[in-house]
What we know:
Elements: H1 4-18, E1 29-31, E2 35-36, E3 40-46, E4 54-60, E5 70-75, E6 83-88, H2 90-93, E7 104-111, E8 131-135, E9 139-143, E10 147-148, E11 152-160, E12 167-175, E13 184-192, E14 197-206, H3 215-218, E15 227-235, E16 254-258, E17 264-268, E18 283-284, E19 286-294, E20 310-317, E21 323-326, E22 340-348, E23 356-364, E24 378-380, E25 386-387, H4 401-404
Parallel strand pairs: 2-8, 10-16, 18-25
Antiparallel strand pairs: 1-3, 3-6, 4-5, 4-7, 7-8, 9-11, 11-14, 12-13, 12-15, 15-16, 17-19, 19-22, 20-21, 20-23, 23-24
Amino acid sequence: xxxxxxxxxxxxxxxxxxxxxxxxxxxxxxxxxxxxxxxxxxxxxxxxxxxxxxxxxxxxxxxxxxxxxxxxxxxxxxxxxxxxxxxxxxxxxxxxxxxxxxxxxxxxxxxxxxxxxxxxxxxxxxxxxxxxxxxxxxxxxxxxxxxxxxxxxxxxxxxxxxxxxxxxxxxxxxxxxxxxxxxxxxxxxxxxxxxxxxxxxxxxxxxxxxxxxxxxxxxxxxxxxxxxxxxxxxxxxxxxxxxxxxxxxxxxxxxxxxxxxxxxxxxxxxxxxxxxxxxxxxxxxxxxxxxxxxxxxxxxxxxxxxxxxxxxxxxxxxxxxxxxxxxxxxxxxxxxxxxxxxxxxxxxxxxxxxxxxxxxxxxxxxxxxxxxxxxxxxxxxxxxxxxxxxxxxxxxxxxxxxxxxxx
Length: 407
């Protein structure tokens, strides 16, 4: 009779003998090329063949976070034979770790008995890197205005691609928040071939485009004063179907402040009487146009909200009066303007004039214009509304002269 301990050992031996060789294989592994481009790469995965989902991980070497493995993709099974796996958007997936060309990319592989894809938070690797690659990928930059209005804005971007791979530029945006929110793909840019460089490319975001693609719509109407963050990536897909989405920890390449409030103000040309509908407008042969504009905060006023300031304040004349005067020179959208602007210019009716209309336009740095720009504040329709006005030489140059001449 065989002792119990021997019977147990014999049974165990028979069970082990019946198991396939793959049951004794080492854990999964990944091999990678010495150089990757970060857009479209290929690595090789070798698993255990036990059927549990396999995962491929990557990270930037020497990152300060010891638990920095990023799940890149998964394999539905766990093939025991070497299997080529395409990696789309590696650089985009690792942006939170600030990779640059020359960075060392570490690779690892695992299996998981619970998670079936990267979104299910599989257990990250606990071993050292199984392979290391050097990144030689694309570089991008984006330049956005310091202030945007949300309805009609333009950004500029540049891209340089590696010799091994080209791709399509994707523009991402989000409203700054703490903690950071996810990135929104807001535009598809140019497609750049391998080993190419392109700069000063522009993308317009406007409610008048077809289809409408203004920032207010794309970012779900962010509140006045919001900080808009920008990022450009290179992808094998398009904005509607990107191969990879930047992680929330990816740093923006530029920022803008949303100023969606138009300036307010008024303009006049004494001695106009248009405020009284029973009387016609009148004007002197030579007269002053004057006005004041303020880039005001919305009501109620948000606390600590910046405004972009006045960029230009202009008078325009129609009919036979060629008048275009700007109180301020062009101002870039990165430099705030003054909060309040006042100006006065002299206009003259040439002889024989029978009609003319004047309007004013105040524009802030963000590109907002006041509503009355198309409504003339002075309209003269006949020559009998134009006449000589009395001048007072002793007041010439004095601030009160403009008022005294019409008494």
